[in-house]
Amino acid sequence: MEKLKKRIQQLKKKRPGYKEILDFYQKVREEQEKAKASLNIDPIKLKKEWKELLTKEGFPILERKDFQMDIEASTTLFHSLCNIGKDANPYMAEQARKIGEAIDNKGIDPKELLKPGVKEQRIDQIANAFGLDKKVLLFLIQSSIKPSIEAGMEQLLNEPDTSTWLKGFCPVCGSLPYLSLLKEEVGKRYLLCSYCGYQWRIERLFCPFCNNKEQESLHYFYAEGEESYRIDLCEKCHQYIKRIDLRNIEEADPSLEDLATIHLDILASQKGYKRSVPNPWTT
Ligand SMILES: [Zn+2]
Ligand SMILES: [Zn+2]
């Protein structure tokens, strides 16, 4: 956490316009770290057939509902994040206040929302019923379950052999990637799962959203002086993924680096490209 704070300081100095959102990020991360330290989750039981399905049929080994969740820790975290939200920007503050009220009046039961595999439709319903912004509610839910999900994923790190997976979706949980990362000396390319945080190896020229591998229709751009961040565009599906070269960044937290380069997403959107998995912090 100390190294992360140092990196946040660096980024704030470099890009003062991001100060408010970076302060918010730091507070959320501090609460998540606290939750992680007290986490109590059962091991995920993997059936042998599942692993075979992964290698033979190309199915991910888990569904979202298979993750084990520490509901108590997630609920505590949800409440803390709502409190942090009340001191954030006015829009977030208003939403966090409304959510707090709905919980106090027993209209919303956070435990129901934090169950593994809760359907997005259900979250929609609740957001509509209480006049809430669905994206903010979803952000708070996902940030609250993240420590449990990541702990589950970490248990499985050595389980699946994903070296031959090479697909555009996560071999552990089947979700789409939200960032692409360059690591190791030779710059191997990985995709980072938007749900469980697993990273898997992928070819350097490849659109994970439509499986396009043709060089002529895969382009990129970056901002001058920021060569570590690149937007990989696909002309076929008109979507893009941000690529972060972690080799040049000392304390590499991909979500943080993503958050501090929203200007690149704005440029990509102006060029007419869509981000398949939006940055959850920009709601
Ligand atoms: Zn995943
Ligand atoms: Zn594509």
Describe this structure in words.
With 283 residues, the protein is α/β, with parallel strands linked by helices. Helix content is 44%, strand content 13%. It is built from 10 helices and 7 strands. Strands 1, 2, 3, 4, 5, 6 and 7 form a 7-stranded mixed β-sheet that branches. A hairpin with a 4-residue loop joins strand 5 and strand 6. Helix 2 runs antiparallel to helix 4. The longest helix is centred in the middle third of the chain and has 22 residues. It is globular. The relative contact order is 0.12. The model has no long low-confidence stretch (mean pLDDT 92). One zinc ion binds next to loops. The site of one zinc ion has 8 residues, from loops.
Helix content: 40-55%
Strand fraction: 5-15%
Taking the sheet with the most strands, its summary is:
7 strands, mixed
Rg computed from alpha carbons, rounded to a whole number of angstroms: 19 Å
* Low-pLDDT runs: none
Taken from the alpha-carbon principal axes, the silhouette is globular
The chain-level mean pLDDT equals: 92
Instruction: Output the structural class.
Output: alpha/beta
Distance between the termini: 25 Å
Kindly state the number of beta strands.
7
Structure annotation, total helices: 10
Bound molecules: zinc ion
